[in-house]
Design a protein that fits this description.
The structure is a homotetramer of 383-residue chains. With 383 residues, chain A is α/β, with parallel strands linked by helices. Chain A has helices spanning 56-64, 67-71, 118-121, 169-173, 175-187, 204-215, 228-236, 250-257, 273-282, 303-308, 323-332, 351-360, 375-382; strands at 18-24, 30-36, 44-53, 85-93, 105-108, 111-112, 139-140, 152-156, 160-162, 197-200, 221-225, 241-244, 263-268, 283-291, 299-301, 312-315, 342-347, 367-371. Chain A contains 13 helices and 18 strands. In chain A, strands 3, 4, 5, 8, 9, 17 and 18 form a seven-stranded mixed sheet that branches. A six-stranded parallel sheet of chain A has the order 12-11-10-13-14-16, sandwiched between helices.
Chain lengths: 383, 383, 383, 383
């Protein structure tokens, strides 16, 4: 029988000893396997997974392995469960945990810092210097510790935010994406009412960056991209102006829209050499530029422009500084409708199909969500 | 007769109507000419120039023209006086100026913001959005407004710092360079005691960055470069370790010296593709990197490394946020000996020789200073 | 004839040489007088006053004199025009002003810093160390320089924000009040989504602090006071909970509403010993408290509680750090309805009546606005 | 036999099962007792105590009980070991600890935050919302968890700083005091070179605040107090000017020394109504005031002065934001001589005598240190 330390379990939530979980096989292979249901330690809870959104980095991990396996030089890590944009219901509590109750719905952020390194002590837990060392207390669920494509997962209480009753499971999976967008704005200074913000790249983070910036009063909010359908969603989420960079010169238009000086804040979510260059040249003197996408190759840029213009640049690898909580609040108050980027839903048992939709953008997929409300059904479907 | 508004002049400092000033001719040409002695307006003073240090950007301006002439598309600006690292004695006061007195020795910083734009209102006067528009009140002496290779210059009172009696004229010309180094550390957060700092490039800004970082308690302070003599001066100014990048791998050594994680703060003062790449890879997760040199060509870099590691980057084009005052204080208290980078002195009348020493690094020149203590002598020598 | 420097006037806006202006007489006396229409200098404009809101500090100045006259030890300043919460139309431009155009509607903030002192150089223009010295460039319209109870006033361009067509004159007079509330939140850190905020005192600044905090996503927003009608308006402006401190213990209730720890941010807008004490004890450990009201007498408080709990406190004397622009943007986007605090309107010619309504809170007056759309009518009415 | 988890012990440091420790009896009673030697958990180490400095708050706890016992309403906590300013040698490591090695000399800071609450997640671990809850991971050694008047103590690794060989045991006990002074300056902004700093009260924190401020380049550094001997030590530690408030008006003199405007930063370390009032009135407009002493009674102050002058105030209850590391670095580099405040030394077995010297300031005692180098001797002496 499942035995949590201190028996912090509830009869309402009987927990099986074993659970179904998708695990990595070889490159682009996933298998649905039985695993022991994990047991929460101090400051941790067990979350019953109810829904998971698929992120582009999930596709990379399934293709190339987790950061830990890559660093380790191993070809692949065969028992690892990916998936990091999930939400669920608290099923068991670690010792001394009273911050949450069994039965509460929660959404998650990815990173729990070690709490011991210099960065964690500064509050920069997503820059934890013990990244990838679970023995030091660090967790990056779905990256270096098991994630959400499973029936249950362990979360440090620092990674949780309560989901209000008025928010659906699917919407709640988007909170961590909105939290990443919010973190970009947090590092940009946060006080963006009346400031000009350009978002480059209408992927999920970019689209929600538009929504969050507008919710905080940024003006104008400008979105650049190449796909008209995506740009149209950006407009619905609050963009004052969209620029199709296949047709218009975004640097020139941003300058026109900002009295000739360029934008106060630019969030680069596309990661190409062309867009990074545009980002640099559309930021105004003393302005700030957040790189939120990973360029896959070295980028040749006009760094002298940064120097001449006192431009601040910083990279973010995900959420941070409790931005997920701020994003959750704006979503809870319906300040924007994140579900506009949720396009498809599959049961967890159909994860491979869901991944294909996400990877190939089948049917213009943006966010594909897998759900797990009826664990029994999932288990039987997979057998 | 020289007529200052409100007659804020003193009989102790009789001011001639005309003064000698070096002005730009064609590329790499300078002429010593007569100009009307300028008159200080509200919040301005007239400074009698006593000494000027030569900076690499002076050489560029003398070769290519001032930023204003370049932007204007003109081949050259024939009456412009360059020179921005100067100090002198207050000779006349603009209307209502009582912050300074005639006869006080002052060193200068370059930029006076317009005081009206968004950046100036934020205190970011070196990021002034009216850069190059003197009609809006912006001044960048030696860049967009007349500079210090002359008998007199106008300075906004915001650009002055008093020179203590214990500091020589030549040392006082170095305050603006130290102020730039201090500004780099200011933007890095300033609280560097016990933090690891790498300075890349042992030019004047780099060497004084070593000195300032050490004065503030940074540890270790590491300096990289290629010239052993310069690295040796860095050691004298406080570097705990120097790395000759022609012989050692700086990224590896910095990692070894920092417990495997890389440096907290990196100040890049070399501006080559190689050193920028090293800078990025030797900054630790969540660390900060200041670009203080202008790369002359586009730089190809691993921007994904910035994103993966939450690294902050910002460019600085000179001093800012009153860092010159903080640098002056440390120099006034003899916390480091900036004169170690002062290698040669010439009279202002020999400016061409001084420039040649600086340009060609004759006799291992670092900072070459021209002095103007006896204006009469200068004038006669030039005739 | 009215002669602006550089003739930056327009035939559309013929400006008379003389204007009507209310000036201070003895205590609580105001006279409508002719004054020369002022002429804008560099970086200044002439604003035709269209509407002015009355603030409690106007009443104090009319009763006791302006800060300048009080400091000067004079019984009163007989030619001074008070009034600082105004909006109007740009009627003439100072030399080189191209940031605004004649005919544009603008609202104002009070303080233009000198641009020269240490605080102004830091961007803290409302903490200008040359407060009250117009010869240094400082202006605090309606406090130390002539204000808005007149046909025209001079404003530094730093004190202007454009009014959108969709905003009424009366609403635009409230922007500076909302800007003060926004500044309180700015100093508190600004990123208040999901943070608990208590506002003490449902006066104009307090009520708009509720509105701004809610617009930025704060939750819960709690308002305390004694007048049920005011508290009800607070609810309409976004308060999640109101506390009538005559009936309930606000410290206890705030603790209950915040999981026992107290509020993250408290804005004290009442200024009594009782409410300051409540403010201190309802702020949580590491929380922040903004004092936005002037206690009229020394306050006895438990300062040890601040020390034991690492609480940050700061006083604000008005708007600052361009918060008025951020407030304007939120109002322009109709994120809250500031007009809920606007209760009464009178013509400028009836200023004494308007002041009486404000002073005696006749008919539950909150914000009383005087308008001046038809200057001719005002002039004739006053004769 | 002593059994650490994972046997992270060394034969070089044989650890007894039982240790001698002073424990609280009734008010002002201390007994030397045997206690089980504590065992370090995850992220903790066992420190063999080598020296402990006595702080005024130790005297309070010995007189009135620990915060936990006071909150608990208990008359006293009979088995509690006070003492928080200690240093020692690492004797055993908790599971997975590799940040430190057995045999390393370390000094400590007091607070280890829970790592879970909102404040800890912001890096504000001394404002931990789980203060006093060891089950959540919070420790305040000597306050809520056992402290250093014993042979051994447990420390979270976040509370350690390595002691260089060139620093004596006694000097190393002062690092936490210097760290508190450094934290005051950290919250004040840290970049104090050339800024005016007043320290009120020449106790240990005040005297080291003078030293730290001067080491960072503050100028002038002014110290106020009443005891000439203490003020003289302040001069030795770097004060540019001392003011005996029994003889001179400190507010007036500070204004004179700061060009009439008051000081940029004030650190109040006396905690009386008179000195708090002086502190408020000697801080300049937009300046910052740190309250670092606990007033024992409510304080009546002119809060309106704070509001009118945009003054920032914050209380600190000890060290924070890793300031102890920065202080250690300055001390390791001999930037100031903290031992000037160390006046007396006793063996740990004579703790009662040491406490009497500290309490009654016998022989002008400032810091009294007890040492424990030869544990055997201590034990036998106490029998």
């Amino acid at each position: 029988m499942y035995q949590s330390a201190g028996n912090n379990t509830s009869t309402e939530f009987p927990i099986p000893d074993k659970m179904k979980a998708w695990v990595l096989g070889g490159p682009d292979e996933l298998f649905l396997r039985d695993k022991p249901t994990p047991v929460p330690a101090r400051a941790e809870v067990l979350v019953r997974i109810d829904a998971v959104a698929i992120c582009a980095t999930d596709l990379e991990i399934i293709h190339s392995g987790s950061p830990a396996s890559i660093q380790g030089g191993l070809p692949f890590n065969k028992n690892f469960t990916p998936g990091h944009e999930y939400m669920g219901t608290i099923a068991a509590l670690g010792p001394n945990v009273d911050e949450y109750k069994i039965g509460e719905r929660v959404s998650v952020e990815i990173h729990a810092g070690c709490g011991q390194c210099k960065r964690c002590r500064q509050g920069m837990y997503t820059s934890c210097l013990n990244y990838g060392k679970p023995e030091k207390g660090h967790r990056a669920n779905g990256f270096t510790t098991d994630g959400g494509f499973a029936e249950y997962a362990i979360n440090h209480i620092n990674t949780l935010a309560c989901v209000p009753d008025t928010m659906s499971d699917a919407e709640a999976t988007l909170v961590v994406t909105a939290g990443t967008s919010m973190y970009a704005l947090t590092e940009l200074g946060g006080l963006v009412a009346g400031e000009s913000v350009v978002v480059i790249g209408p992927g999920p983070i970019g689209l929600l960056a538009v929504a969050v910036a507008k919710a905080l009063g940024a003006s104008p909010v400008i979105l650049t991209g190449t796909r008209p359908k995506r740009l149209a969603i950006g407009k619905e989420l609050g963009a004052d102006r969209t620029i199709n960079i296949a047709e218009e010169n975004p640097v020139e238009i941003v300058r026109q829209l900002t009295g000739g000086i360029g934008a106060d804040y630019v969030i680069e979510c596309a990661g190409t050499m062309e867009t990074v260059d545009q980002a640099i040249h559309m930021t105004n003197r003393g302005g700030k530029l957040c790189l939120a996408a990973f360029p896959h190759e070295p980028v040749t840029t006009d760094l002298a422009h940064l120097v001449r213009n006192n431009i601040y640049v910083y990279g973010i690898r995900g959420e941070g500084r409790s931005a997920t909580h701020r994003a959750m609040e704006l979503m809870a108050e319906k300040r924007f409708d994140a579900t506009k980027i949720h396009t498809h839903t599959f049961p967890l048992a159909d994860l491979p199909t869901a991944l294909r939709y996400a990877r190939e953008r089948v049917d213009d997929a943006i966010k594909v969500v897998v759900t797990n409300r009826h664990a029994a059904a999932v288990a039987s479907a997979a057998e």
